[in-house]
Specification:
heterodimer; A: two-stranded antiparallel ribbon; 2 strands; globular; B: 2 domains; 5 helices; flat
Chain lengths: 494, 134
Amino acid sequence: MNEALAMLGAGFSLALEPGNLLLCLAGVTLGTLVGVLPGLGPVATIALLLPLTFTLPPAGALIMLAGIYYGAQYGSSTTAILLRVPGEASGVVTAREGHELALRGRAGPALGIAALASLVGGIIAALVLALLLAPLARFAVAFGPAETASLMLLGIAAAVALSPVPLAAAWALAALGALLGLVGTDVAGGRPRFTFGIPELADGIGFIPLAMGLFGIAELIRALGGGSATRRTPAIGSPWPDRRDLKGAAGPALRGGIIGSGIGLLPGASTLLAALAAQAAERGIFRRGGLWGSGEMAGVAAPESANNASAQTSFAPLLALGLPANAVMAVLAGAMFLQGIAPGPAVVAERPELIGAIIVSMLIGNTMLVALNLPFVGLWAAVLRLPMRLLAAIVMVLGCAGLWASSGSVFDLWLLLGFSIFGWALLRAGLEPTPLLIGFVLAGPFEEALRRALVLAGDNWGVFVTEPASAALLAAAGGVTALSLLQRMRAARR
Amino acid sequence: MLLAGLGLAALAVVSGQPFRLPSGRPGAGFVPGLLAGALILLGLLHVATVRTVPSAGGDARAALALCGAVAAFALLLPSAGFLPASWAAGSLALAAAPGLRLAMIVAGGGVLALASAGLFLGLLGLPTPAFGTR
């Protein structure tokens, strides 16, 4: 508890600096915008914005990027409720009941409850993060190289299990990502490998062109292919919920926040999973007699609180263990590396003010989001009529110029082109590239841990199963993979 | 099959790196060799077990226009300068979806290029010439 208070205390003054407050506002506003717009999710946005954050101080950059992620969860509810189209994946769950409420003329209160429930989830998650980060980091510090390698494998297994791609292909993508992550100078021997004599590759493949190409531009291609027909939205009315709505939503919001916070801590967890679990809990246990299917307010409050909480607590595996839990966290890990910060237990111990500032900014950002979402909900509904083509053109020009500004390398622009084409090819083949990105980010630490573990154990591979923590982590990775295989087989039979 | 092919190519490249160092320790090709082998096996396993995977879409016009925008920016930036590169990228990106006249695309690209130059060259002071080479 004292550690948590000290961390928050150290982060308070940093988070409250005017520049960081402005960046927090910019992040949550951008997040709401991309959450509202179906097609451009937070991964693509953060990937495309990476070059711009290069010029910012670390705290400001991370505060802004985090704001985009949880801001997108807020924005997604607007589209889900008004159009039954999720702006972001987790909005699918809110869309079920939220759109029914909108059709019954209660779009305003549903949007209001979504914003307030998200605030509740955000506050719960920020407290969970503050309380758990230091103990988690201490746990990770005790890990030797065998445990670290096994932990990395568990992270990849979890990302692969949740990927919509067939299991073998998802593992293959992770291996390909890891191979790409190992291009550059070999840390142990100091000699270049897989650089083909290209000096620009001596430092490895740039994270920004890879993330921008595979996620940003490929996502824009998909969104433009989906058409940009004018959308009509139902009447909204006042977004302020009445006392009955608040009473009905309070319990689901609190429970959703707790469930979402717990799920966000798991490697490989997603906001969609958190929203689904929270709604399932309400429907199956806590509010079985509700108006499910015809506009149940708990069906908005629980998933909205859960997805926001999960978005925030998914920072814990990254910050405390150095393990990106999903694609957004993998991009954020890249952003941290670009800022010269290696995510992991050391950053929690050595930079408590930075971690504290990120957590405090979440509390501030969530409050900003309610102020942005409740009074200006009509404005966000109007944004839905923005043509996708214009948005894509703005993003493309800013993205290319931003990449040039951050790296000053024309080679990186060609890399961006290569990864855009590859991202499009993966899209055509139905292969979602999250495992590749996670493999790319974890390749370096995994290789180092594996080599060190083998050297220390005298080339004995048995060390990975004789060390109890490593064996437990490997068993968890195997369990996650087996479970995912069973689920896919069951789905295929159906 | 593409994944298995990539694995095979990676294995060919990895073979130029030492799998083991003279001391017996894992060399620069050790982990990449394991990964390339895994990639080949998993790629083949995917081909053997999965018949069709639904495509997530993305039409050719959008792909060509957006990839063309990046290529145009990369080509024009060192030779013609920031403004022509941004104009070409913006115009091509605006042409990614049908329904906009050529004059609008060209003019829209110009507005985007000016805005981008204002932000990067004016506000952020990026040391890149608006026209021509350094």
